[in-house]
Design a protein that fits this description.
It is a single chain. It contains 3 helices and 9 strands. By secondary structure, it is mostly beta strands. It has one domain. The strands form 2 sheets. Strands 2, 3, 4, 5, 6 and 7 form a 6-stranded antiparallel sheet that branches. The protein has a 3-stranded antiparallel sheet with strand order 1-9-8. Strand 6 and strand 7 form a beta hairpin. About 20% of the residues are buried.
């Protein structure tokens, strides 16, 4: 079992310019709240492959890769849904190189691996978390689960009240 980490000391690797390391670590992924629903990683503690390379002139090129399942409510019918998520993220941290070259996850040569893994997981998750690809969702009138109700489920159309006065017109 790989060691668990939240913050990782990059300076402790003592890398010289152009040198790199690949590390097997474990990190906990904190739950996400999207659209008022809570989504969690399964397992909540995932094995990550972290690659660290020291750049010429200072700074680091970082990579993280892991796979975890996303568990939470289906975005159509609210039943339990599961989606497999592959995370493959890269970061550059070159102090003094401008905003686009400074990583928000590296401070004083310490990598906030837990925050980076959580953000990368959130960015890699699917746009729609569904219990199944063809989920029909809920009926907009009565909130019945259309996956169980079947194609015969329907409601009589209610006339739009904004047109009520036009229905009173008597045309020859």
């Amino acid at each position: 079992m790989a060691p668990a980490t939240h913050d990782f000391d990059l300076a402790g690797l003592r890398l010289t310019a152009g040198e790199g390391r690949r590390l097997a670590l474990e990190v906990s992924i904190e739950p996400l709240t999207l659209g008022g629903e809570r989504y969690v990683a399964d397992p909540p503690r995932v094995a990550v492959d972290l690659t660290v390379s020291r750049m010429v002139g200072g700074g680091y090129a970082l990579g993280v890769r892991f796979t975890a399942a996303l568990l939470g409510a289906c975005m159509r019918c609210l039943k339990q849904a599961r989606a497999d998520v592959l995370v493959d993220a890269r970061e550059i941290d070159r102090p003094g190189g401008g905003d686009e070259l400074e990583s928000p996850y590296v401070h004083d040569e310490t990598l906030d691996l837990a925050a980076w893994a959580r953000d990368a997981f959130a960015l890699a998750m699917p746009a729609k978390v569904l219990c199944r690809e063809d989920c029909a969702g809920l009926c907009p009138v009565c909130a019945a689960d259309l996956n169980d109700a079947g194609p015969e489920h329907h409601h009589e159309a209610v006339p739009d009240p904004r047109w009520a006065k036009l229905r009173e017109l008597e045309l020859e």
